């Protein structure tokens, strides 16, 4: 299949002047899958009600079918067509954070989406993205759009159209290309089926942000303990992983350098993932920077791109600096731990 590539610029979309968006939306209406930018990462969209369309997402990604998808809407009120019940605290979260990188999991309305979207669960995950191209595309399609991140399953999520094409060129009908995404990590997924919000996947909207609006919030305990089965089915799979084994190391640059030297003495080619502040201090085969430690939002933005860059380098092992798991750092460390398969090197 030839993948169409529509380059758009965000300022024009706001005025709905884009034949490209119309063409992409028409393909979604016909039951094809189309990649599009959001403020977090690129998504791979299909209309929510048609099984065969949703199936194409799983096919293109090579995604396990027990992992449900997020439904994207372009109007806050459309959540009522999908959800059977929205607790008052969830409505407060919607009012505060939509459009934006917050996904709510709520009891689903029977028949509102294909069973393939929810993987047989009786809940549905919904979000309204904060990106003019995404909103224009969903509006133009006239239906809610199910969309996981637009990467091959297991790879880092795409933050540029090039990442999407590296993974999915020829496997999808098209891509709307509006350049780099903003946040860089996927939305915060919040379970809104209980008495208070429970974070299933940390993201750009932090636990403190949610508590400020909803009063109380918790983080799913399975995210804290690697061995427990997480409630967001997707969290159990290895994700975001570069091809070479990745280890996280807490400690000084000197301690990390010592480990690098040990591996290199064994004849291994070693890559390092480091913040800009310390990158220059390492002597290794490849050093890739991922934002500034003093500005964790920049690390979030650059992390996936940096992880992908290692696949173009001849490295046998990768060692990453650790980041403080506070604020957006919780999301950074969640993704880094998954990319590393929870492999840490402890200081001796
Ligand atoms: O930022 C994002 O959320 C991006 C952009 C494209 O919107 N999308 C995204 O989708 O990250 P995906 O499919 O890669 O991740 C969806 C996550 C998975 O961990 C999945 O298990 C969880 O949301 N999820 C979806 N439906 C759920 C449900 N009903 N209950 C619990 N978790 C659910
Ligand atoms: Mg994903």
SSE layout and pairings?
Elements: E1 4-7, H1 10-13, H2 19-29, E2 34-36, E3 43-47, H3 51-61, E4 70-72, H4 88-97, E5 102-107, H5 115-118, E6 123-127, H6 132-141, E7 145-146, H7 161-168, E8 174-177, E9 188-191, E10 198-201, H8 207-214, E11 218-219, H9 221-224, E12 246-249, H10 253-265, E13 270-274, H11 276-279, E14 286-289, H12 296-309, E15 317-321, H13 329-339, E16 344-345
Parallel strand pairs: 1-8, 2-8, 4-6, 5-9, 10-11, 12-15, 12-16, 13-14, 13-15
Antiparallel strand pairs: 2-3, 3-7, 4-7, 5-6, 9-10
Bound molecules: threonylcarbamoyladenylate and magnesium ion.
Magnesium ion binds at residues 148-149, 157.
Q: Which descriptors apply to this entry?
A:
globular, 2 domains, 13 helices, five-stranded parallel beta sheet, 32% helix, alpha/beta, Rossmann fold, DHBP synthase, binds threonylcarbamoyladenylate, eleven-stranded mixed beta sheet, 16 strands, binds magnesium ion, 348 residues
What percentage of residues falls in helices of 4 or more residues?
A: 25-40%
Number of helices: 13
pLDDT below 50 for ≥5 consecutive residues: which ranges?
A: none
> Mind telling me the C-alpha Rg?
20 Å
Please give the CATH class of the largest domain. Answer: Alpha Beta
Number of separate structural domains: 2
